[in-house]
Structure formats: structure tokens, C-alpha cells
Amino acid sequence: MRFCEWRGLSVRKTTKDWNRGVKLDTNNVELITKLVIEALNKQEAEKNEKGYLVPVGVSNRHVHLTQEHVETLFGEGYHLTKKKDLMGGQFASNELVTIVGLKLRAIENVRILGPCRSKSQVEISATDARTLGIKAPVRESGNVAGSAPIALVGPKGVLYLNEGCIVAQRHIHMSPADAAASGCKDGDIVSVVADNERGTVFNHVKIRVHESFTLEMHIDTDEANASRIAQGDTVRIMK
Ligand SMILES: [Zn+2]
């Protein structure tokens, strides 16, 4: 578990200093012994902590498009090409667009996720919303009614969406087996804690259960940076 790694740092650092040639006097031995015991106690405490562990996936800004809108931006008959498989049959495509806010501020190289959907949607961070000069609401993916307008620019055309730009609500994907094991069900709202040096608690985390999902909490780059969580770190569901 990566979130445990930093907890061992103080011990490793001390051992390194020790190896660097500090005198082998009694005080140093006592200090190292104390640090090692503290580290072991911490490990024990972690084992006894309650809560279901969930790995974190950090979502960068991205776009979902209808097939019609893919063709508007990339040309008639164009289809998205797969770069990397994601969970639930989704994929990161090779195709990128520029997104433009009403104040004509733009962000380039925003990736499109496939396959195509029945509605186009742009998911950005709150920082991106400031950069673009737009007011994007926090929403669950797919719930775009009344959300912010945005323009997209592709190599073959331009698309204006009256609504569709959101900041994604943080959520946890899980299989029915994970749901049973964690005591959660689809649609639940839970709190999650990150046991790292920032010690952040996230409230209002939506549980999404589907057979195609693998266990993962999705947060955006703002949330990850503010809480010092990286892709693959682990958080705990608090019950
Ligand atoms: Zn997700």
C-alpha cells in the first residue's frame, strides 16, 4: 500500500544517517530503537483501523462525445481510436480537442474518452473552470442539465455546447462483490479518509456499483493535489 510508505520514511532516513558514519554511542542506539518501536506501533494501529480500503484513480480533464459530435470535430465518418483501456468498457482515445470558455480562454490537448455517449460532456477541475472563466457545477457524470456552456475545437470543426461542462462529483466504482464486502450499495453517499500527512476526509462520495467496475475512487486533479494523493494511493471508507 503506497499510503503506508511515507510512514516508514522517518525510520529509513534515520538508518541512512546512521550509516553515514554517526558515532555508535548509546544515545544513537536508544534513538533508533525508539523510532523503530514507534514505526512498528503505527503499523499495528493501521492493521486495527476499521474501514474498507479503496485505491484512488486521479481523473484529468476529459471529454465524452456523441458520434455526431465526433464527426463535427474530426470529419464525417470519423471514429475515435483507442489509446488505452479503462474500466467498464471505456477507453482513452488518441483524439484531443481544445476547450474554450465564453471569455475565449482555452485549454488545449483535452483527451476524449470513448465509447461515444448519448450526450456530450466536458469534465474539468475547479481550477480549469477558473482558467476558462466559466462556472461549472459539481455534478455526477451524465447529469448535465443546466450545466455550463462550453466550446470545443477539433481539427475539422467547432462545436458549441449550450450545457455540458461540469466538475465531476467524486465517487467510488465497485463491483457487487466489493459492495457486499464493504457494506455499501449503489447510490450510497459515504465519507472517505486519506491516512497520509495531510489526513484529508472527503464527504459526499457517491458509491457506484456495477458488474463491469473494478474498485477505485475517482477524484479530480484539484482534489488529488490538495490532499497529496497520487494515482494508486489508498483511502478508507469510514462507516
Ligand atoms: Zn469514475
Distance between the termini: 21 Å
Q: If you compute it from the alpha carbons, what radius of gyration comes out, rounded to the nearest whole angstrom?
A: 23 Å
How many DSSP H or I helices?
A: 7
Helix percent reads 25-40%
Class from helix and strand fractions:
alpha/beta
Q: Strand share of the residues? A: 35-45%
Secondary-structure map:
Layout: H1 2-5, H2 9-19, H3 26-48, E1 52-59, E2 62-64, H4 67-74, E3 82-85, E4 91-100, E5 106-114, E6 121-123, H5 126-132, E7 138-139, E8 148-153, E9 158-168, E10 171-174, H6 176-182, E11 189-193, E12 201-209, E13 216-220, H7 221-227, E14 234-238
Parallel strand pairs: 1-13, 2-5, 6-9, 7-9, 10-12
Antiparallel strand pairs: 1-14, 2-6, 3-4, 4-5, 4-8, 8-9, 10-13, 11-12, 11-14
Helix pairs in contact: 2-3
Q: How would you briefly describe this protein structure?
A:
Helix 2 packs antiparallel against helix 3. This protein has seven helices and 14 strands.
General description of the model:
- The protein has 239 residues and is of the alpha/beta class.
- It contains 7 helices and 14 strands.
- It has helices at residues 2-5, 9-19, 26-48, 67-74, 126-132, 176-182, 221-227; strands at residues 52-59, 62-64, 82-85, 91-100, 106-114, 121-123, 138-139, 148-153, 158-168, 171-174, 189-193, 201-209, 216-220, 234-238.
- The strands form 2 sheets. It has a 6-stranded mixed β-barrel with strand order 1-13-10-12-11-14. A 6-stranded mixed barrel has the order 2-5-4-8-9-6.
- The longest helix has 23 residues, at 26-48.
- The radius of gyration is 23 Å and the shape is elongated.
- The chain starts with a helix and ends with a strand.
- Mean pLDDT is 87; it is low at 1-19.
- Bound molecules: zinc ion.
